[in-house]
Amino acid sequence: MCPGFCFSAFLVVVFYFEILVAMKYVALAILLAVLQTAPPPPRKASGNASSSGKSIKQDSGNLQTQPVAATPPTDKQSGEPPSDTHAANNDTEIQGKIKTFTGLLVVVGFLQFFALIGQVVIYCRQAKIMERQAHEMKRQRGYMRLQWQSMREQLAQMQASGEQTDDLIEFAEKQVAALRTSANAMFDSVEAQSRIASASLKSANAAKKSADAMIASERAWVTVTMNWAPGYSGLFTSSHTENGVTTEGCISTLRMTYKNDGKTPAWITERRALLKIFEPMEMPEKPAVEDADMIAVGVVSLAAGEEKSVDTPLLCNGRQTMDNLAVIYGAVRYRTAIPKLTGETISGYSVSIGGGTLRPLEDAEWNRNT
To answer: For the segment 223-244, what is each residue's pLDDT rounded down to a tens digit?
Structure first.
């Protein structure tokens, strides 16, 4: 129990004790007032002076033990003094009142004592409760101190984490700046490499063109020329009947001349020729070399500047008219002295009706040399 509370309880006890003493004084004052209001004791005649004197002395002795206020004298005196019996009855009545009042004071004192004890018990209980509350408050204060320390540590950790975060952000920014610088340098390098590659490509293309030009200037170039064979100057009509069906056609003999206009030898692997009559809008954009007739078999070498020729008869179905077109073309395929380099030459002609003149076709696909 705390000393402050004990001191407060002591003050409360003293206060109640003072109240009890004060109430006793108040009770005595009330008793004196009652005694003062009581009738005066009776007096005897002069003949009984001695007895009267004794009575007065006895009364004075009683007054010393119990203080009683003096009764004022009355102007009217009874003709007959009261008897001793009446005085004894008054004394008995006063003594009874005093006893009754004293008993009441005792009861009041006991009640106040018990009330005081109850107050002390209540204060003791409240003191225990307050002591427990104080203990709980101390515990809570300890917990709050621990929480405060934990919060301080968390705050310090948060501050340290914030500093670390700032450091990480700064480091990341530096990395980003370094990556940006590296990316810019890489971009510049890529641009430089692109320019170098473009220049290299141009150089390569120029070198290729130069190589192609050198190859073209040094390789074999075979040209083909188609003419009528000696003794023939145009197309001749012919007819053929088989199973009662007559088929008309054109026939002629042509001479194919092929010449190596290059600087290195060539080897002729295929020689083909074809005579065909095309109806309007039926002529293809380029000749079908595989459909042409093979006019010679075997490989023929052709030196630089050398020229050779071969005669071959050509036959086709149909008759040449004003509405169609007769076409003759020859094709030569060959190898060159340069490894894996081959060539092909196509030469196409149209045949004029009646005169038999051979005119080169204007379409590039019908007259090309690769």
So the answer is: 999 999 998 888 888 887 888 8
